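job 3f2a | input accepted
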Amino acid sequence: MVVTKAPPSLLYMVKQVELVVRSRLDELLKPTGVTALQYTSLTVLERHDGLSAAQLARDSFVTAQSVADVIRALETRGLVRRERNPRNRRELLILLTESGRDVLARHAEPVRELEERMVRDLTAHQTDQFRQALSKAWQSLS
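job 3f2a | predicted structure (142 res):
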C-alpha cells in the first residue's frame, strides 16, 4: 500500500512565504534600523499619506497598539510626523517626512530585487496570476 502525503495547506504555505519575506526584509533594513513592520507602514504612507493611526493600522495589517508603537518609533527617528486633521481637530494624521521618503528611496531597489528573487522561477504571466490570486484571496477574507 502506497501512502501519499497530503500537500501542505495553503495557509501554511502563505505563512512560510510571509515569514521568509519578513526575515529577508529585516536583513535588508537592519543597517537603517528600520524593521519590516515599520517599513511596511512607511510604504503604506507613501501610497496614502496623511492617514489616521486607525487607518494606518488597518492598511498595515496590525493592531492599533502595534501601530502606536510603530508610529512612536518612526516619529522619534524623524521618518513620520503627526499633525491635526483640519476637518477633525481631535484626530491626528500621520505623514511621511523627507527622511522617511529617503529611507524608502534608498531601499526601493533592494526590495524590488527581493521581490524579483521571490518570483524568479515564474514566468511574467505566472507572476501576474500569482498577484491576482493573492489579491482575490485577500479580498475573500477581508
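job 3f2a | DSSP finds six helices and three strands in the chain.
job 3f2a | closed
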